[in-house]
Write a structure and sequence with these properties.
The chain is of the alpha/beta class. The protein is built from 4 helices and 34 strands.
């Protein structure tokens, strides 16, 4: 007796020879014909491995006898877009030169490349052991999202390419790429230009003279190597601010931003920042409110003034040998709450990825009847792209919180070199007066007291 078993979505057929050894020996000559008859009866007519019939055929054991041709699934469209990296200042600090370089605004000219979508590749049908065609999964055509007022789509050689329609700064509005207006001031902001209040990006090649105002909805760059002095106000309502040459505020400069502030140094100024403040070399006699305050140089200083941060303050030296009064306040954070938030984000990311896979499967099934499902296909393509962007943002939030949780305690003052007397450290309303010079302490709140660890 010969049994035929079809498996793996009809891509494989196995035979099993149910014979006694003596019967097998006596009927070996007629066995090939009997197997072919059994295969014909089971409608196995493609991919039969005839060479198997001529070899040893073990008894009562499944033997692979036919293999279909699996389909080659299509590949999804590939999208490459203009990348806007996270701002990371380049600090050059040696005996000859001190620089704090950063590219905050990403300029483009009309006609510059902004992105492209390579067409999906079609699949190749397969054949099962019954000779039936197996349809492949077709590649998904993902949407290419762009602002039609500032970006042009051009069809060329199997792909769609995006180009800037105008000079400006590349920016993403959600998951849609756009080119925003940039106000470029080739010199200084002074009586010739007047105060600036601009809906977009502002790039100032020179400085901002004392008592003048620069306000913008987006990022602001001030590129003068001499920085700014006693300005009245520099404010970005939605973006970050980069001041290449630093801030010598003369006791009246005020800087406000939604994102981060990057400056070579900050002196005698007031800063209110919803993000983090990064100073290259020092902060002196300034009032700063921010998420984190970090002075990056290995010889950096925070001397005088009042530093008020949520997560941490980090610097080489706090205070100085002259025992200048310096106030450091760490509001702190709820580690358990942040951990719960990070776990919730992890669960949400996992859930969104499952939803994304389900949408992709639905889109593949709709692609088999594309003519009737064109509107629904377009809708699901948009959902897929939106889901991918949401996952990206959730993963960034997860990474940010993960970074905060690496802070010792529930908020910390991290001193990489020395902390000097007359520095007052406050962590979650507990106060410590530094009475003597300490080397490389990290202060956290532990058992209700501020302690060095």
């Amino acid at each position: 007796m010969i049994s035929v078993n079809i498996c793996n979505n009809a891509l494989e057929a196995y035979i099993t020879l149910h014979y006694l050894p003596e019967d097998y020996k006596n009927n070996r000559g007629k066995l090939t014909e009997a197997i072919q008859s059994a295969l014909k009866k089971a409608n196995v007519n493609y991919g039969i491995m005839y060479e198997v019939l001529n070899g040893e055929l073990p008894l009562n054991t499944p033997i692979l006898i036919a293999k279909g041709k699996p389909p080659v699934h299509g590949t999804d469209s590939e999208i490459r877009m203009f990348q806007i990296p996270e701002p990371k200042p380049l600090l050059i600090d040696n005996d000859r030169v001190n620089h704090y370089e950063l590219n905050l605004i990403h300029h483009v000219k009309a006609g510059d490349w902004l992105g492209e979508r390579i067409d999906p590749k079609p699949g190749i049908p397969g054949i099962d052991v019954h000779g039936n065609e197996i349809k492949p999964d077709e590649g998904i055509l993902y949407p290419l999202l762009y602002d039609q007022n500032s970006v042009l789509q051009v069809r060329t050689e199997g792909k769609d390419v995006l180009y800037a329609l105008k000079d400006g700064a590349v920016h993403y509005v959600g998951d849609t790429i756009a080119v925003y207006d940039v106000l470029e001031v080739n010199g200084d902001v002074d009586f010739n230009t007047g105060n600036i209040d601009f809906n977009g990006y502002v790039n100032i090649k020179g400085t901002v003279e004392d008592n003048f105002v620069v306000k913008s909805t987006k990022d602001i760059e001030i590129e003068s190597e001499y920085g700014i002095g006693g300005v009245k106000l520099i404010e970005s309502t939605e973006g970050s601010i980069y001041i290449r040459g630093g801030v010598a505020g003369k006791g009246k400069a005020k800087i406000i931003c939604k994102g981060n502030l990057y400056a070579k140094f900050i002196s005698d100024a007031e800063v209110i920042c919803e993000g983090s403040v990064f100073a290259g070399f020092y902060i002196r006699n300034s009032s700063i409110r921010a998420k984190q305050v970090i002075v990056e140089s290995g010889r950096g200083q925070i001397v005088g003034g009042n530093i008020d941060a949520d997560i941490k303050v980090e610097c080489a030296d706090i205070g100085n040998r002259m025992e200048k009064r310096t106030l450091i306040n760490i509001r702190g954070f709820d580690r358990e709450s942040l951990t719960d938030e990070m776990n919730d984000l992890s669960d949400t990311i996992h859930s969104r990825k499952k939803q994304l896979n389900a949408l992709k499967e639905k889109l593949r099934s709709l692609n088999m009847n594309a003519e009737k499902s064109r509107n629904e296909i377009k809708k699901i393509q948009q959902e897929i792209f939106g889901m991918q962007e949401e996952i990206k943002k959730l993963e960034k939030q997860y990474t940010d919180i993960s970074g905060y949780l690496k802070t010792p305690g529930n908020g910390a003052l991290v001193v990489k070199n020395y902390v000097y007397p007359k520095v007052r450290v406050t962590i979650q309303n507990q106060v410590l007066e530094i009475m003597k010079t300490e080397y490389r302490p990290t202060y956290v709140l532990k058992e209700g007291l501020i302690q060095a660890i």
